[in-house]
Amino acid sequence: MLRRFAISCVMAALALGAGARTRPHYGGTLRVEIEGDPWQRPNGLARRLVLDGLTRVDADGTARPALAVDWKSENDDHRWQFRLRPGVHFQDGSPLTSVAVVASLNVICPANCPWTAIHAVGSSVIFTSDSPMPNLPALLAADEFLLPLTITSEGKTPEGVVGTGPFQVRGFTNGMLILAANDTCWQGRPFADAVEIHVHRSIHDQWLDLGVGRADVVEAPAEQIRQAQQQRLTVVASPPVTLLALTVTDSGALANPLLRAAIALAVDRGALYNVIFQKQGQITASLLPANLTGYAFLFPVERDLGKAQELRGGLTPPPLTLATEGGPVMQLAAQRIALNLHEAGFNVQVVNAGSTQHADLGLRRLPLECNQPQAALESMLRSVGLSAPPPEQSPVSLFNVEHNVLDRKTLIPLLYLPSAFAIGDRIRDFRLGPDGTPDLANASLEDAQ
What we know:
The protein has 449 residues and is an alpha+beta fold. It has 3 domains: 29-44 and 166-216 and 424-445, Periplasmic binding protein-like II (D-Maltodextrin-Binding Protein, domain 2); 52-145, Dipeptide-binding Protein, Domain 1 (Dipeptide-binding Protein, domain 1, Alpha-Beta Complex), CATH 3.90.76.10; 241-418, Dipeptide-binding Protein, domain 3 (Roll). Helices cover 28% and strands 24% of the residues. The protein has helices at 2-22, 47-50, 98-108, 136-139, 203-211, 225-230, 257-266, 269-276, 290-293, 305-312, 328-343, 373-383, 395-406, and strands spanning 29-33, 55-57, 63-65, 68-74, 79-84, 117-121, 124-128, 167-173, 176-181, 194-198, 217-219, 234-248, 282-283, 320-324, 348-352, 361-367, 411-423, 427-428, 444-445. Strands 11, 12, 13, 14, 15, 16 and 17 form a 7-stranded mixed sheet that branches. It has a 4-stranded mixed sheet with strand order 1-10-9-8, with no helix packed on it. A 4-stranded antiparallel sheet has the order 4-5-7-6, covered by helices on one side. A hairpin with a 4-residue loop joins strand 4 (68-74) and strand 5.
């Protein structure tokens, strides 16, 4: 009996020890390194740490309350009323009011918005539109509609970025953005006391710092995920959340739809997937990934150089420009596409996106900011200046809208890529949100006191 009691005590002690090791700790500083700008749109790392939206989207694609506690639609989705969460304050102490929300939305979305007008009415924000807005709650969860304070309670312009999120800006020095925990956040205090984001760090330097314990979270670009795993880094990757796509103008020489169709058939998606992006993500000719719709296989992904040459016929289009954004990998992908098009009879010069305003072609990364299919498609089309009627809540309607857009050959999907990060040994409960951004507010450090 005594021996059994002793064994029970040992087992209980082990269980308590394991619980203590896994239980989140408050305190400590999370050290993060990135190549780019933490405030870039969309999905800059600092944005969802400092700012909130009226809604958020769960992993299943359902719009949930955030700064708005509930909402309702009227007049066949032409009018929406969002009631604000009471008692919320911005990080400078200014109250969250409907007037502040309207002012913020007017600044961050001055044109090409999903709505026609917005109004502050008591504790609610009213959205109206000449067209139905069936997807508005999910759309408002996107990165572009996160709400910064634009006018303080004293009527002044705030210094820096001020939001309602779990962290607030403390300063920027020596290439490092310092965020401090917002103790009065409406969601509750985050576990870490602070987040330090070191910017403009090369992937090589990020991985070195992670290896020697100077960083807790670093980037693992899609094309380097396999290399990171081979170096025994702990990699956390999302489902496909970024669409690599080719935009094609429908003016000038490419006003001819046969030439645009020839370009679509000439691109070798397999080479991009296998060689440049190292078999990460998935090849696609659909705007939405297969896991959201189930019909992506209906859009053919195979290259048909013979058909492309046949469609071009005897036409000899003038030299075209292909503008690309991003770093060396995007440049390499653009050069590969230019080679594909040369084989189909097109003369294409690759240029930097910042060096020209009127390129014939563009290689872009389009974020999948929402995992609700109808809202995701509407948001993606808006981001490239295209419009289409909002699809009804059915796969057939969604397919028809996407098919009609793709039939114009002004937007050519190529690959869907994941978002990935490598993490250190002391970080716990690290997860990626539906859009692939790290949820650092709910992460903790094992050695925090």
